[in-house]
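Entry:
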Amino acid sequence: MSKSTHAHTSAPRIGGAVALALLFGAAAGAGGNALVDAGAAGITPPAATITATPAVDRVAAPSPDEAPPVTFTVVAAGDVLPHGPVVSSATTATGIDFLPLMSAVVPYIEGADLALCHMEVPVTPPGTSASGYPMFAAPPELVPSLAAAGWDGCSTASNHSVDRRAAGIAATLEAFQSAGLGAAGTARTEQEADAIQMYVVHGAARDINVANISFAYAGLNGLPKPDGQPWAVNTFDADAADASPIIAAAQHARDQGADIVIASVHCCVEYKTAPTAAQRSVAEQVAASGLVDLYLGHHAHVPQPIEKLPGGPNGDGMWVAFGMGNFLSNQGTQCCVAETTSGELITATFSIDEDDRVDVGVEWTAITTDRLSGHTMHVLTDIPDGAGTLSAAEVAARHARVASAAGPEAPERTTPVGNLALGVDMIPRTG
């Protein structure tokens, strides 16, 4: 799958090309439960909203004999959590289509060079029906709707990954494969589990291999992994703050030819804006490893801080979005806390020079779901006067909660991003 119609004649550097060739060859032959606290988050809105330009570390202009840096954008979002009422809103007389619910945020997704969502739940196995909390399964129509919205792939490791056992994992990955989307974090076979989800960004000077790895805390809501399939879902021990499986996967991605590694981590306590000590420790360990360029957090269902932690591949820091809140869900004050109505859409701008030095800048965009108006999604800064059932005052309150949670380190983005690369291709993990 590519977001560009350009022809690509540039080639990856030798190490990446060899590793991807090996990956293609292998694919051709392939057939601590964290506690939940629903208490209020206790957020104090900021006095003003800060709008700024991208926080990209500027790279010096190349001399005539130097290749220009490759630049591209990655957009990521929080949990895709299709409760029963969300499915009802997507259901019409002619079928099920989630795209109309997402249409207002599509411009902020489709303009990215690479867009990565987080699929919280499995897809229904054949012959079964969709279901909501506590044992989720989404209608298969959700996946092509995500593709139509501009997403290139999703992370799929979550505490709900095994809600429909091995059949649900298989149905989910088959739906993603049919839609041309990448998926990281779950697997149907041991060989598929070993293959890192890779995307190739085509730059004018060369191609860049971007890996997405995905992990969830080991509890899985008390459900076991499928019998004899410990590799079916990538997990780590959040209670022990053991980041070693994530770090090992990042090293494996580098060994398979990744120039950039993005870690999607599903952890830890729900409905709290402040990261837990274990959550912060895991992110700090990953940053200190020097193997991961960007860390994307899920599961809290509320926006959490965006910070640059010491470490990273260059030693000058790794950006962490501890929790991006919800992307599309039915959560709100009727079940949870007010912060669950909204989320952070993350835009990361990468620049890679000819010496493979990577500079990353991160911005956030406040998004929300109007659950009382057919679960219509909005970018909050696009509707200052209100929309649907959201008054101007409610829009301002939701925006203030996201801004307070995100914190001051990363600037806000209030306009859609545009393509910087020539295109992106998803590399299938299986043939």
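The domain at 29-42+68-427 is CATH 3.60.21 (Purple Acid Phosphatase; chain A, domain 2).
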